[in-house]
Amino acid sequence: MNSNNDILQVQNLCVDAIDRHGKTMPIVCNISFSIAPGQITSLIGESGSGKTTVSLATMGYSRPNCKISKGKVILQDEDLLNLDSSQIQQKRGSDIAYIAQSAAAAFNRALTIGAQVTEVAVLRGLMTRQQADLRAVSLYNQLGLPNPETIGRLYPHQVSGGQLQRLMAAMAMMCHPKLLIMDEPTTALDVTTQIEVLQAFKRLIREQKVAAIYVSHDLAVVVQMADDILVLKDGRMVELQSTQNILDNPCQEYTRMLMDAVPQLQLPHISHQPLTAAAAAAADKLTPDPVEKCRLENTVRKEANSDVLLTLSNVTAAYGSNTSTVLKDISLKVNLGETIGIIGESGSGKTTLGRVISGLMVPSNGQIEFQGRVLNNTCKQRSREDLRQIQFVFQMAETALNPRHRIRQILGRPLEFYLGMTGRAAEERIVELLDLVELSAEFIDRFPRELSGGQLQRINFARALAAEPKLIICDEITSALDTLVSKAIIELLINLKNRLGIAYVFISHDLSTVAKLADSLAVMRHGEIVEFNKTGNVLTPPHHEYTELLLDSIPKLRTGWLEEVSGLVYNPV
Amino acid sequence: MRNIQSKSSPFRDLLQNLTPTAIICLSILIILIVLAIAAPWVSPYQPTEILTDESYHLMSDSMLLGGDYLGRDIASRLIYGLQITLGVTFVVTVLAFFTGCLLGFLAAVLGGIFDTLLSRVIDALIALPAIMIALIVIASLGSSLPVLIVTLALIDSTRVFRIARALAMNIVASDYVEAARVRGEGLKWIIWHEILPNALGPLAAEFGIRFTYTILFMSALGFLGLGMQPPHADLGLLIRENMQGLLFGSYAPLYPALAISLITITINIFIDWYLQQLDSALPSEF
Fold first, then answer.
1. A272, A313, A336, A526: most buried, per Cβ within 10 A?
2. Does the residue B15 lie in any domain?
């Protein structure tokens, strides 16, 4: 941290939110840091910690109903906060560039990529069209994009998500910015794609000597990218240190918690213990309900015979008129009380598999057997009892819970619908369910918008539990959550699994999360299961080639991993 | 950042954010509605009672707004006209919303052939000018109150259908409706408990706007002589009856015209305010 040639200096930055009645509330307070050329400082924290607010403030921007109330943002000896809006407008795009989380949403689908990448430079008159095109091609080269000469002529939908994210970087670097701000640029990408993008970004930042801010909630990724890490919590600085120092000895308790929450893959040991009679007896004390007790005993008895709960045989599914097959000949078996993890990248068909099992999507071929009977393909044709036995938990709790229903109705409906419970009995059961997902009974009269993301996901899960199912399909239920929150949800699932003996199909793109929970793993790619085995076996070498790739792609919580993976060595400035 | 409150009433929140303009509009509307409901007690005379031989009697203590072309009390006729216009419009709009929303929601939930057929039929109805449909139906069936109400409701419901369908399409695609479907819920539950509560805000605003359109449309029909038949009169017919008065310097046709503008403008301003509240009530991301 050398203050003489720092490109960006942020001093005592404060941002206030203004509510409808004109009252101000600080959302970010007293933030100070500086960045030298070619260096990356990372802002890390949970959602609501103010990391995006800080990164936007370094562009002299605050969102509607927010105001930068104090502090300095000095970009090359000039305080951005003293400039008027037209001057600052000139800085943005040329001196300061921004890479948004989702390139897919940021690109205009009606224009070619090249036109959009060069737009600002040409519009500002900084370059002629020819110069801009040349610069774009050289940037494409540096970012390792395929066919750099011609890729600019394609439209955004013709390239992959990872490529689009790198094209967005090219757009940002077009006018030789001094400061580059990246807001969760790889969160929407698969692990294997993420590596390429991270490498390309890092190389570019070193070569072009820009100061970069990297905003993320994923500590493992941040460790690969950042030279310095600034930990934020509730709008305040918790800690600012070099990456190595943070890893070796974090000063603050909160930083340590963040590091502990990063899911680490344990090879090849797995923590799951089968439900034994002793465990069932222990569970007895926890759940005195006789119905539940009976079910537990049944579960134990059946698991001893390893009864098959669900069998998929040769299931094929396609969208449209069989033109794009998303599932090819899938066969899968789920035993009573067993947890199957389904792993794959986006487009691998893992979500479709979950939807086929639940009856939301109709397979074009093959059959689904549940408890020895063949299930109807659509949920309309299935009996209410079949529907009750298989519950589906959606990825985004915010959208899966009706915003106009109180928690009482959200949890009460399956009770009434499947079990005919109303009135006092239902009320008591709802409180029990809330207790089961570790929420207090006072939530019962709240609306979903009054709950946090983690609490919503618990309600979402409790709704599935309310039906007292034999099988719960969880579709990426932790992927939209912060690391700490998602860790808590996983712990809850493990706890409930041992208590209730429900079988799970746990769909995720995150191998390290699933490995904690699943008894067996199914690795999917392009609509096929490439490997299906006990979790321990999948994780013990020798791996299947693709599994190996997935395993190697998970960022490790140590510096230098990104360079090792690629064999890329950079020379420190 | 989420606001965690133990209990909040959306209605109370709404009242707290009333602006002066909204308060004025709301009071005017309430006064007019009360006047219309209390017409038999408020109006000084019977609306059909001929009080004098003189046409376009001037304003006096006994006739507050003067007399019309037959010597009837304008104030009384205005109050009863208000009652008829507001009453018929309310019934028409409620009917239109009931059928329009029901069909629109059904089209969105069922989709497929049902949606396609219904949408094309309604597109065809929308393509015909509303006044033409009304002219043809009323001319062939004769002008009576039931015919008037059903015709207006039918025309309005095609417009409501479009909006209800578009609203419901968005909601049907949401995860919570999918969750209800996978739970095995029937049509009735999905429409009543999943779609309707979430469409209610925009629909309420649309109700207000449709209400004003219906008033204008009905007044136009009244003015053309296709609406209410004398001696009963809605606001549109009141203008037509007394149009001649303008030649004699009487304000008689201006009062009903003023009443129509007052209702439509205040409703519109009030709806604007209400829509603003809806927007700001949306959850904001920090």
1. A336
2. no
Inter-chain touch B17–A382, beta carbons under 8 Å: no
Instruction: Collect all residues of chain B within an 8 Å Cβ-Cβ radius of residue A384.
Output: 184
Whether the CB of A205 is below 8 Å from some CB of chain B: the reply is no
| Phi (first) and psi of residue A188, to 5 degrees | -85, 5
Q: Which residues of chain A have pLDDT under 70?
A: 1-4, 20, 265-306, 320-323, 566-573
The Cα B74–Cα B44 span in angstroms is 10
Distance from the Cα of residue A262 to its chain's centroid: 12
Q: Do A400 and B176 touch (CB under 8 A)?
A: yes
CA A198 to chain centre: 16
What is the torsion angle, in degrees rounded to the nearest 10, for the CA atoms of residue B247, residue B248, residue B253 and residue B257? 70
A230: left (phi over 0), alpha (psi -120 to 50) or beta: beta
B102: closest CA of chain A, how far (Å) = 20
Nearest to B182 among A48, A379, A442 (CB): A379
Listed in sequence order, the residues at least 6 apart from A507 whose beta carbon sits closer than 8 Å to its beta carbon are A342, A350, A351, A353, A354, A473, A474, A475, A476
Cα→Cα distances A138→A173, A197, A204, B4, Å: 11, 17, 11, 51
Q: Establish how many alpha carbons lie within 13 A of residue A459's alpha carbon, considering only the half-sphere containing its beta carbon.
A: 35
The residue among A46, A402, A413 with the most chain B CBs within 10 A of its CB, best to mutate, is A402
Give the number of C-alpha atoms closer than 13 A to the C-alpha of residue A140, restricted to the C-beta side.
21
- Using the structure block, give the residue that is written with the tokens 């390893």: A306
Write down the H helix ranges in A209-276: 219-225, 243-248, 253-261
Cis geometry, peptide bond prior to residue B231 (ω within 30 degrees of 0): yes
Q: Is residue B99 part of a domain?
A: yes
The answer to whether residue B233 sits within a structural domain is: yes
Contact indicator for B135, B220 with CB cutoff of 8 Å: no
Pairwise CA distance, residues A225 & A44, whole Å: 12
- B17 contacts in chain A (CB < 8 Å): 20
* Element containing residue A485 per DSSP (H, E): helix A483-500
Total number of residues shown for chain B: 286
| CA dist., res. A206 & res. A209, Å (int) | 5
| Within-domain flag for B171 | yes
CA angle A415, A335, A513 (to 5 degrees): 80
Tokens representing residue A468 in the block? 């007292």
Question: Is cis: bond before A64, omega within 30 of 0?
Answer: no
Number of domains in chain B: 1
What is the token pair recorded at B238? 């009141």
Write the pLDDT tens digit of every residue in A341-356. 998 887 788 888 998 9
Per-residue pLDDT reduced to its tens digit, A439-483: 888 889 888 888 888 889 999 999 999 998 999 999 888 887 888
In angstroms, how far is CA A95 from the centroid of its own chain? 31
Domains and CATH numbers, chain A: 37-54+85-261 (3.40.50.300), 277-553 (3.40.50.300)
User: Are B286 and A394 an interchain contact pair (Cβ–Cβ within 8 Å)?
Assistant: no
Domain of B166 in residue numbering reads as 38-281
Tens of pLDDT along A265-304? 665 443 444 444 444 444 444 444 445 444 444 444 444 4
Report residue A510: phi and psi, to 5°.
-105, 100
Polymer length in residues for chain A:
573
Binding-site residues on chain B for chain A (CB distance < 8 A)? 1-8, 17, 174-176, 178-179, 181-185, 193-194, 197-198, 200, 280, 283-284, 286
Cβ separation of B176 and A399 shorter than 8 Å?
Answer: yes
Question: Partners of A313 in the beta sheet?
Answer: A367
Q: What is the CATH number of the domain that holds B102?
A: 1.10.3720.10
Place of tokens 């005592």: A12
Residue pLDDT, tens place only, A21-68: 778 888 888 889 999 988 999 998 887 788 888 888 888 888 878 888
- Joined tokens for residue A312: 């998929």
